[in-house]
Prior knowledge:
- Helices cover 39% and strands 17% of the residues.
- Strand 8 (254-258), helix 10 and strand 9 (282-285) form a beta-alpha-beta unit.
- Helix 4 packs antiparallel against helix 12 (329-345).
- The chain has a seven-stranded mixed beta sheet with strand order 4-10-9-8-7-5-6, sandwiched between helices. Strands 11, 12, 13, 15 and 16 form a five-stranded antiparallel beta sheet that branches.
- It is an alpha/beta fold.
- It has two domains: 31-64 and 346-446, Aspartate Aminotransferase, domain 1, CATH 3.90.1150; 68-345, Aspartate Aminotransferase, domain 2 (3-Layer(aba) Sandwich), CATH 3.40.640.10.
Amino acid sequence: xxxxxxxxxxxxxxxxxxxxxxxxxxxxxxxxxxxxxxxxxxxxxxxxxxxxxxxxxxxxxxxxxxxxxxxxxxxxxxxxxxxxxxxxxxxxxxxxxxxxxxxxxxxxxxxxxxxxxxxxxxxxxxxxxxxxxxxxxxxxxxxxxxxxxxxxxxxxxxxxxxxxxxxxxxxxxxxxxxxxxxxxxxxxxxxxxxxxxxxxxxxxxxxxxxxxxxxxxxxxxxxxxxxxxxxxxxxxxxxxxxxxxxxxxxxxxxxxxxxxxxxxxxxxxxxxxxxxxxxxxxxxxxxxxxxxxxxxxxxxxxxxxxxxxxxxxxxxxxxxxxxxxxxxxxxxxxxxxxxxxxxxxxxxxxxxxxxxxxxxxxxxxxxxxxxxxxxxxxxxxxxxxxxxxxxxxxxxxxxxxxxxxxxxxxxxxxxxxxxxxxxxxxxxxxxxxxxxxxxxxxxxxxxxxx
Length: 450
């Protein structure tokens, strides 16, 4: 590795950063992270921060999880790669598929399709949903419905169902046949509804209305995050996902749960679907499945969908989809070790307790700082929405959010800025002291706003 001066001199000059404007990165170079231990980060200047972002929602077990590192090393020595395309397989993915079936059995999910990450998992679920209906002879069922403010990755399928213009506008035209309903977003919604249960009813009614308008026999699937993540951490009322499940059942529409963020304990339950008492037809996972140490994902498939595919006798049941790194043996070994540690540490329970503490701490900050318009969260998913005028709910400026980010960073905590929202998603192994440090550093960052 080159020295610090080289890294600083060449920062942002030779590659474009995801989710960023190249010119902005050149003008304001990003933080150069050079080390990590436990739940902490070290930058190129030696400044240490607590990672309240958890990598990118994925480092649930922190950066010092030796069993996962050992599993990766051992697998690299034994078998660094082989394909899982038709005709060959490897030991780690056979073992992992068995473990995942046990893990997701309460969700009614019994098969896995392995991918390279979250966007791949979304693309896979969308394709399998269309194929499911074709096998059954309902070949007009090609449309998808999703939620405004939802985020579903960056492939063309995912971008088309995304509910945020930031991920759509510059890449249009997108996939036809994708439609959106209002989000159960209590702070800002088109119904001006302040009762969360009533809002859940209104949004679910909008889903049923859209299905009927499009024609139920043309809709393949509805996709949703059990708790919206990148769109600003929006937890729906507990009734929303069950209402959606009932509507999908009545109209023959598959329910896809995008749990790329919420699977494996982040909400305080092992899955977001389980949190709301719902069994989806397909579930997209990635991120925390390997603790962020290796790119990997899996789509989990329900018995209903499995039966249709595995009983098929013609070409419509053949899966013409997959990735070079689907079921990568090193990723599978990492996932096996991660699942074992995730279960042993009961991180879902810690996420529930620490999440309540973090939410309460941020609500205390809201009472102190007028720039906070709303605080919301579930488990270790918490957001502070920043405004310049609370009554008008006017979003704060980029300068304000940048100031808060820098002030919080200088006080020893890394947070994530998305628009006018501060998003917190720390590792699921954080302690009560870590939560206090996050809140204290945010207080310092917020205090930079005059």
